[in-house]
Amino acid sequence: MTYTPTRRTFLTTAGAAMVSTWTRPGLAALAAKPKTLTAEPGAIPLIGGRYPDTQVWTYNGGVPGPELRFKQNDNLKINFVNKLPDPTTVHWHGLRLPNAMDGVPDLTQPPVKPGGSFDYAFGLPDAGTYWYHPHVKSSEQVGRGLYGPLIIEEADPPRVDREVTWVIDDWRLGQDGQIAGDFNDMRDMSHGGRMGNLMTLNGRDSQRFPVRAGERLRLRIINVANARIFGLRFDGHHPTIIAMDGHPVAPHVPHQNRVTLGPGQRADLIIDMEGRPGDLTAVVDDNSGRRKYVYLEFDYSAEAPLRTSPLDAPKALAANPLPGLDIANAETHALSIAGGAMGGMTGAKYKGRDMDIRSLAQEHGKVWALNGITFHGMDAAPLFRFQKGRTQVMTLRNDTSWPHPMHLHGHVFKILERGGKPDPVQPWTDTILLAPNEVSKIAFVADNPGKWLFHCHILGHTQAGMACVTEVA
Ligand code: C2O
Ligand code: CU
How many domains would you assign to the chain? Predict the structure, then answer.
């Protein structure tokens, strides 16, 4: 007889697995430090219950891939093996690393062919929550499940009862429970990108997350979705954001207890489980207004509260060793984003030629432009040149009807202004989520030489032309 686990038993098992990671961080860290990362096809119980497994692409057989954990200032050394039918690479999202290790095909390395391998090795100057994913046909490869968390532990982590990583995603599945193959659908690419119909937490249907009353968690949330912006509202709780995109911020509870993350972005939260034993508390994603839904429920165990008196407010983490800004002597730049549905872009330059929007879309599948230029490939001339060592100030203007999480490789930037006003948090980030028609200002020190990609992390947008090469020299 075949054993078909019910959703309930599955979740209990998943919960138990997490408990052992929390209670024995030392062992988990050792176990979670593979020397080899292999991209290969696989199958996972994405939906669970009596549904068949879903065919996916994995790192080391799992989705997410293994949680890679290092200590700040460790060296990462990983032999990557490609057992996929397609070329691929590994990009270490958010890390300040040598250009040759950045994993961008035909810009920083040749793509790794099927059956091929590549050694990634570099130092880890910054603590924080990062992730890794391919950079070849990202919309499809990330959409098939290729992603994993990369955690770099600070020397003096905040005291919590449990530390948990939440890799949040959505998948577009057909009736058969298999991934829909329409990765470069023109309608998706010219609108908000590829939205899924199954929400997952750590590669499983997100239903319930077991907690105990009174415990304090550190949640590391990583949005790996193709296009979905999550606005997770922790009703009845007061999550304190202590880091964004890996870098410490002044601890603060966000407006309406909502943590908003665009694709590619991460947040570290300290959250006290304020409910009572036996409670079921919804975490609602209401980022897209009327289409809000319950992302998951905190499932409070019947156990007595772990503590009854409230803990002290979380303290700030130690800053990472980022270079100091010299705004007075900065080079200045402007980036304007145009195109997409309801955007009014009439045309753009493509491979040096002026093209109207209709031919761009029909002949090349492109609908977006940065400073009037639609990205065609890695041999494009740099759109921005940054003098090495200088502070760069860039004004970003989103002249479209869609939000865009803009991601710069190899550097982290400070968000100085949003919508003409000083950003109250001024976080150091690698991805800025620009609202439709938003104008914002960022600054960074161009201290990492090489050619670096700058693109929208809605992966279909990148595919449809919203990217550029920058050069630090
Ligand atoms: Cu997370 Cu260019 O990517
Ligand atoms: Cu975009």
Answer: 3
The residue whose C-alpha atom lies closest to atom 1 belonging to ligand 1 is 93
Residue 330 has pLDDT above 60, yes or no: yes
Write out residues with Cβ below 6 Å of ligand 1. 91, 93, 133, 135, 264, 407, 409, 453, 455, 457
User: Is 135 contained in some domain?
Assistant: yes
Ligand 2 mean position, distance from CA 461 (Å): 5
Q: Output the residue whose Cα is nearest ligand 1's atom 3.
A: 93
Question: What is the structure's pLDDT at 34?
Answer: 79
- Burial of residue 323, with CB atoms counted within 10 A of its CB: 0-12 exposed, 13-18 middle, 19 or more buried: middle
- In ligand 1, the atom with minimum distance to the C-alpha of 133 is 1
Residues 125 and 261 in one domain: no
Task: Summarize the confidence of residues 227-245 as an average pLDDT.
Answer: 98
Distance of CA 113 to the CA centre of its chain: 25
462 C-alpha to ligand 1 centroid (Å): 10
Q: Give per-residue pLDDT as tens, 368-406.
A: 999 999 999 999 999 999 999 999 999 999 999 999 999
What CATH number is given to the structural domain containing 208?
A: 2.60.40.420
Q: Which residue has the tokens 């036996």?
A: 278
Expressed in angstroms and rounded, the spacing between residue 243 Cα and the centre of ligand 1 is 19
Supply the pLDDT for residue 6.
34
41-92 pLDDT per residue, tens: 999 999 988 899 999 999 999 999 999 999 999 999 999 999 999 999 999 9
The pLDDT value given to residue 27? 45
* Distance between Cα 458 and ligand 2 center (Å): 5
Of the candidates 258, 208, 254, 215, the one whose C-alpha atom is nearest the C-alpha of residue 235 is 258
Sequence-distant (6+) residues with CB within 8 A of 24 are none
Sign of the torsion formed by the C-alpha atoms of 249, 251, 256 and 258 = positive
Regarding whether 126 and 177 lie in a shared domain, the answer is no
What percent of the chain is helix, strand and coil (3-state, nearest 5)?
15, 40, 45
**Domain enclosing residue 46, as ranges:** 19-153
For the CA of 94, the nearest atom of ligand 1? 1
Quick one: which atom of ligand 1 is closest to the CA of 462? 2
Please indicate, yes or no, whether residues 363 and 451 belong to a single structural domain of this protein.
yes
Residue 146, pLDDT above cutoff 60: yes
pLDDT, tens digit, for every residue of 171-197?
Answer: 999 999 999 999 999 999 999 999 999
